[in-house]
Amino acid sequence: MLPRRKIIEKKLQFEDIADTHIISKRQELGLDIYTPFHFHPYSAFDVAVKNKYKGQDMIYLCITREKAQADKYKILPKHPLSVSECLTYKKYLLMNFIVYM
What we know:
This protein is mainly alpha-helical. 48% of the residues lie in helices and 0% in strands. It is built from five helices and no strands. The protein has helices at residues 4-9, 20-28, 44-52, 65-70, 83-100. The termini are far apart.
């Protein structure tokens, strides 16, 4: 598996199923150097893809938590479209923590 940026750099052929707003935000945040993955097969994204490509074969690549930890996978705690909200909230908490410390 390759991240989107590598696929584009290598001019590999692929069918894009990602939302364009999410792609843009991932690029803006520098997340396009990582391969996105989902924690479970019934996320909103998964259901939307299954509905759009109904009747086509799909596969799930699964790994154990131990493998993810050993390979130092990075986990984004929020969806890329809500990261700015997350950062704003974190900044607010940090400012309040410093003021009240």
